[in-house]
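Hi all, long-time lurker, first post. I run a small reading group and we've been trying to get comfortable going from sequence to structure in the token notation. Rather than ask abstract questions, I figured I'd post a concrete chain and ask someone more experienced to write out its structure so we can walk through it together at our next meeting. Sequence below, copied exactly:
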Amino acid sequence: MKPEEEWIVVPDGLPAIIDVETFNKAQAKMVYNKKNSGQFKTREVYLLSGLVECGECGSSMYGNTRMCGRNKSNYSSYRCSSRANHQGCVNKEVRRDYIDNYVLDELYRRLFSDMSIRKLAAMLSGYNQKKSAESSGELTKANAELEETTRKISSIVQLVTESGISIETVKDELRRQEDRKRFIEGYIQELGMKNRVAAISEEAVLELLNCSKDFVRTRNIPECRNFINSYIEKVVVFGDRVEVFFQGACA
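-- Answer (accepted) --
Happy to help. Here is the structure in token form:
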């Protein structure tokens, strides 16, 4: 290959796949990403995302992380959206770790004490047993109706066979009964699935609650994030206090 100084260069001699401006922007972006490759590797997890409300103006509060201090360390907080948009709210942002820990402490105290877990497990187990009994009653009725529909279909087939009448005479009624039979069979299958779900024992409920309890106790925020909405309705932040509202069944 010839040295570069001996090359004959024809500007735009080949049609460009992308235009020069787009290419330059892409190159600049690549350089920026290379310099900042570690900046976006870790995404902040906000336990209460979508649950925090400003007690002063009623607006939602969102998670915010910024660099602060001499060491340029991350400072994560929940910030009122109205204040951030300069809409007059004076409520200050609240440090994320403070409010997350406060809510988890309240959750642990209200729901995950040994007595609370036993009470909640018994309540859930009783509810499941009630739903199971209701489904069993519906299943009995559905099976009786299925038996009656099957009998009607057999009677129609027997009528055609023994009397010699044309199937065209009864085909509409036969189709209706066969459609009804398929519907009832599907309904019975659905009820059976509901019964299996409702059959969860108190011991199984205890195991699930204790697992959640361990996540709260050890402050496993990613795991707590998976179930926090099941227990917490909202968290209201005032200038001088924080109020935690639990879901109806947990209140």
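A couple of things your group might point at:
Residues 114-163 form the longest helix (50 residues).
Helices lie at 20-35, 81-84, 96-111, 114-163, 171-198, 202-217, 221-231.
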